[in-house]
Design brief:
The complex is a heterodimer. Chain A has 26 helices and 28 strands. The longest helix of chain A is centred in the first third of the chain and has 21 residues. By secondary structure, chain A is of the alpha+beta class. In chain A, helix 19 packs parallel to helix 20, helix 19 packs parallel to helix 22 and helix 22 runs antiparallel to helix 25. Chain B is an alpha/beta fold. Chain B has five helices and eleven strands; from the N terminus they run βαββαβαββββαβββα. In chain B, strands 2-1-3-4-11-10-9-6-7 form a nine-stranded mixed sheet, sandwiched between helices. A two-stranded antiparallel sheet of chain B has the order 5-8. The longest helix of chain B has 13 residues. The chains are: A alpha+beta, B alpha/beta. The interface between A and B is medium-sized, with 31 and 29 residues.
């Protein structure tokens, strides 16, 4: 141990590691001594928001994480649910927002790489990726650049490693101009006997670092993610890691070969805060300690200090604890894939992280302090003072800038409602030979070879309504995810979430967090869906301008038979079109309101969970019973956009009636409300005439309202007396929505 | 004895399991062949599957061609054995000199995963023997570097010898630039060697073997090999 008593760090030094003076003093008080620079760096990383969740943890305790199908909940690398027959499904979503804003290709790519490691660290083979991404308006070249490069980065990693990207959500809004969001989700499958925990045990057992060499990249990445972006963010570019999907593919195969091997004790992804956090967390979970000799770590660069080795976030590395005496068996597996497997330390009985540099001991920190010693934060929260004035206006009384037809075509031709093929054709969405339904629909469906059942998955973010009412907006996102699964016949198993917010030290942002997490907890409980994993991304803020509250919900469900599924496109002329769920004219926070008025005002759509549950159950029964020709969640863009999507996908027109008669006198915006209102809980379905009695019986059985709207056919799309557009014009608007913007350069 | 497909695995290969699955649907049996070995384990047909062998570093297929396994594959091909290179496998075959030409970055520079239609241009090869000239197959592509290129002499020779096996086309076989996803010369999606026992193609037939996944047009390639070899009494 160094004999010099370190001096207290300067304010600048504390800022560098995102530690407050009070936190520093708490650490020294707990330790009974000062910390040397290495210890301080490790502590700063572990106590950063990114690793410690010190601000969000108190809120996240509200989330219900247990359930009959839950095998492992939060606290592991990923959540695990039971699919029956000894097969487990493992999944998680995680953000990589800050790195993607600075270096979009590598930021997005390493986001994908990180979430893949979380899943195969559990012994599960990744079978699907999804992404939820948000950018500013595409009429700005910077936003087009960022968007194109993020898509390239996601594709670069997923395509190369051979895991299909089967779904996602993309949304553009000027609120994300400075802070783009890149949330990546991964789903994997594991035999029960292959499941591995990230727990160290057995003093004397060797600790190995496998995969890539350790370099200077990504040092303090965790800290970087825990502060606001500012103009100096460009200087943080070295804090963004560089991805090597090829190496990770080899690492994945080697690790999966090792899972289930008796030599393996514990396996952990080496992610944020590098070796420091992976070793500390593994040891802490096992109630033991770990001793690391940094001199034994293979390096990419010369002259790296112990500090740099311990905090490097070089990608494609895993830490494992193996049974003493079994090192060679483990080594042989990694050798076959031309991967390093360095023994860098050992498990010790004392619950501490001890760092050696050769013979010299350079740091020792008790794990109780390093992992758990931080104080949870509950910054003051305050309901925004202007909220009432934003909730008050009635959107139906606003004059419309465009005719219903023009509004309809503009929505279809907008990047948020238009076709997303430009994105997903850049992603391999088929590798693995299991993609029954890929991107571009409501939910992705994967078969599981050798079984009749399959997986369904979706990721849905709260939209503008969350800016008006974070609690309800978040709950609405859960409801939308449930509907997306229902239309493919799937029942939810569990959800994962990525909570993206601005700076929690702003009291209004803290209020948004409290409300949103409360809304998630309430909705998950009401829908009966356990929350098994998640991630929080704070400080999505640029010079005081934060993003709107943006919780993303990743939902995984099970379909009893992958062979039965309806699809969102109309199938045959003469089929009858029905609306299941309530009719409504709720425009507040809608996509129409954003596009036409550039605002989000009014009271966001109501949420009736009991009605949503009944409708979802009815839709599942209808889909599984092959009653329907098509089924589509009615959400973004309202009835008009949903109807057009079913028409375009099927290449068939439709003539329908308005689901609601206008009141007398009708408000100015009535027609727009009927067409584009985003009332929750609705499905647009079509059935062959000979299936009507079955439809009625199922809906009646579930007590679900069903309203006949019209009939499939013709070359135009018409909503009784309100608006009519040509099928070709609609298809052209939708197909050009992204391509025309992106390929004009 | 069942017809045996040996499926090559390089570090970075990812469609070996997809190909095994397709082979089993076609009634064959499959075994994996490790890049560092020279043993083809008695394979009747070697499949070089899709992926990013050795990360596609330097150039797609440029490192994989030096694998010990490739010596055995070349010998197998010289002796008349069947070799099917799919996507990355096609790139490796070109790098290894078992097929002429090269696969360049897609026109448009983007990775593309989408359905394509392929027009069958010749049936005088064991891979397409059960089909008819002019038939179209719906088989998806998934690549960033699939633009077939060869010098004019080579192209002329390929055409003259009917060694263009598959061309990107419309659903009913019409040839037009808009059906050419990557800018391949002569809309080439797949070619044969002189002996017609080595086929390289960019599209993924193993992904089109079941109606559940959208198309079963790719099964003909695997099933054709199985039935052809069984009929030949091997």
């Amino acid at each position: 141990m160094t004999q010099v008593v370190p001096e207290a760090p300067t304010p600048a030094e504390l800022r560098e590691i995102a530690l407050t003076r009070a936190e520093y003093e708490s650490a020294t008080a707990q330790l009974g001594r000062t910390l040397n620079p290495l210890e301080l760096g490790m502590l700063g990383a572990m106590w950063s928001e990114h690793c410690s969740y010190k601000t969000s943890k108190p809120l996240l305790r509200q989330l219900q994480s247990t359930g009959a199908r839950v095998v492992l909940g939060p606290g592991e690398n990923a959540g695990v649910v039971d699919l029956g027959g000894d097969l487990l499904c493992c999944f998680k979503i995680e953000s990589h927002n800050h790195p993607s804003a600075i270096e979009p290709v590598q930021g997005a790519a390493t986001g994908v790489g990180g979430i893949l490691r979380d899943v195969f660290a559990m012994g599960a083979r990744p079978v699907a990726l999804l992404d939820a991404i948000r950018f500013g308006d595409l009429d700005q070249s910077l936003q087009r650049h960022r968007f194109a490069r993020v898509v390239e980065g996601i594709g670069f990693y997923g395509n190369c490693i051979g895991v299909p990207t089967v779904g996602g959500e993309t949304y553009f809004d000027s609120a994300y101009s400075e802070n783009c969001l890149v949330n990546a989700m991964c789903v994997g499958l594991a035999e029960r006997s292959q499941l591995v925990r990230a727990v160290a045990s057995g003093p004397g057992n060797p600790v190995m670092l496998v995969g890539a060499d350790t370099g200077r990249d990504g040092i303090h990445g965790a800290t970087f993610a825990s502060v606001q972006l500012d103009d100096s963010a460009e200087e943080r570019r070295p804090a963004v890691q560089v991805g090597n999907p090829y190496l990770e593919k080899c690492l994945l195969e080697a690790c999966l070969q090792l899972c289930g091997h008796p030599a393996l004790v514990g396996l952990q992804d080496c992610g944020a805060a590098g070796l420091t956090s992976s070793c500390a967390e593994m040891a802490h979970r096992g109630g033991v300690g770990i001793e690391i000799d940094v001199a034994r770590v293979s390096r990419r660069e010369r002259g790296m200090s112990p500090y740099q080795v311990m905090l490097s976030e070089s990608q494609e590395r895993m830490v494992l604890v193996v049974e003493r005496g079994q090192e060679d068996a483990v080594r042989r597996i990694f050798d076959r894939w031309d991967l390093h497997s360095d023994i860098i330390g050992r498990v010790i009985a004392e619950p501490e992280l001890r760092i050696l540099d050769g013979l010299e001991q350079v740091a020792t920190l008790p794990l109780g302090i390093l992992v758990d010693g931080f104080a949870e934060r509950r910054p003051p929260s305050r309901r925004p003072s202007d909220l009432d004035s934003r909730l008050a206006p009635d959107p139906l009384s606003s004059p419309a800038p465009w005719s219903p037809e023009e509004s309809w075509l503009r929505l279809l031709g907008s990047p948020n409602c238009g076709e997303t093929r430009w994105i997903f054709r850049q992603y391999d969405h088929q590798v693995g030979d299991d993609t029954v339904r890929g991107p571009g629909g409501d939910a992705a469906v994967l078969r599981i070879k050798g079984r009749r059942d399959g997986l369904a998955m979706t990721v849905d973010g709260a939209h503008r309504s969350a800016a008006l009412d974070p609690r309800r907006g978040t709950a609405l996102a859960v409801a939308e995810a449930v509907r997306n699964l229902a239309v493919v016949g799937a029942e939810p198993l569990a959800l994962t979430n990525c909570l993206n917010f601005g700076d929690p030290d702003q009291s209004e942002v803290m209020w948004q967090m409290e409300e949103a997490v409360g809304g998630l907890a309430d909705a998950a409980l009401a829908f009966g869906i356990p929350v098994v994993s998640g991630n929080v991304s704070l400080y999505n803020d640029f010079q005081g301008n934060g993003i709107p509250p943006t919780p993303m919900v990743g939902l995984v469900g099970q379909v009893p038979s992958v062979a039965v599924s309806a699809g969102l496109g109309f199938r045959a002329a003469g089929d009858l079109i029905y609306l299941i769920g309530p009719a409504g004219v709720e425009l507040a926070g809608s996509e129409y309101q954003r596009l036409a008025q550039g605002t989000a005002t009014g009271t966001p759509p109501r949420l009736d969970v009991a009605a949503e549950l009944a409708a979802a159950a009815a839709i599942r029964d209808l889909v599984r019973g092959s009653v329907l020709s098509s089924a589509h969640d009615c959400a973004l863009g309202g009835l008009a956009v949903t109807l057009a999507e079913s028409c375009i996908a099927g290449g068939l027109g439709a003539i329908v009636e308005s689901p609601l008669a206008p009141p007398s006198p009708a408000p100015t915006g009535w027609a727009w409300g009927v067409l584009f209102g985003e009332t929750s809980g609705r499905y647009l379905i079509s059935v062959a005439p000979d299936q009507i009695s079955r439809l009625a019986a199922v809906c009646q059985g579930h007590g679900v309202p069903v309203l006949k709207l019209g009939v499939v056919g013709g070359s135009s799309i018409s909503i009784g007396g309100l608006a009519e557009i040509g099928l070709v014009a609609a298809a052209q608007a939708s197909s050009g929505a992204l391509v025309n913007l992106m390929e004009r350069g | 004895m069942a017809v045996r497909f040996g499926i090559a695995v390089f570090p970075g290969t990812w469609s070996e399991r997809d190909c095994s699955h397709a082979v089993s649907l076609a009634g064959g049996e499959s075994t994996l062949l490790w890049h560092a070995d020279r043993d083809l384990k008695g394979s009747d047909c070697v499949v070089l599957p899709g992926g990013f062998a050795h990360g596609d570093y330097l150039r797609a297929g440029a490192i994989a061609r030096f694998a010990p396994l490739m010596d055995a594959v070349a010998e197998h091909a010289r002796a008349g054995g069947l070799v099917l290179g799919i996507c990355n496998g096609f790139q490796i075959l070109c790098e290894a000199g078992l097929l002429p030409g090269a696969l360049l970055r897609n026109r448009g520079l983007q990775f593309l995963c989408q359905p394509t239609w392929l027009r069958v241009e010749t049936v005088s090869t064991p891979f397409l023997a059960e089909l008819e000239i002019g038939t179209t197959l719906e088989i998806p592509i998934s690549h960033g570097e699939g633009r077939y290129y060869a010098d004019p002499t080579t192209l002329a020779q390929l055409e003259a010898e009917s060694r263009v096996a598959l061309r990107y086309s419309g659903p009913s076989g019409e040839l037009a630039d808009r059906y050419n996803p990557n800018g391949s010369l002569h809309q080439i999606a797949g070619i044969l060697n002189e002996q017609r026992n080595v086929l390289g193609m960019m599209p993924h037939p193993e992904r089109a073997c079941e109606p559940l996944l959208g198309s079963e047009d790719g099964l003909a390639l695997f099933a054709g090999v199985v039935r052809g070899l069984v009929a030949a009494g091997r």
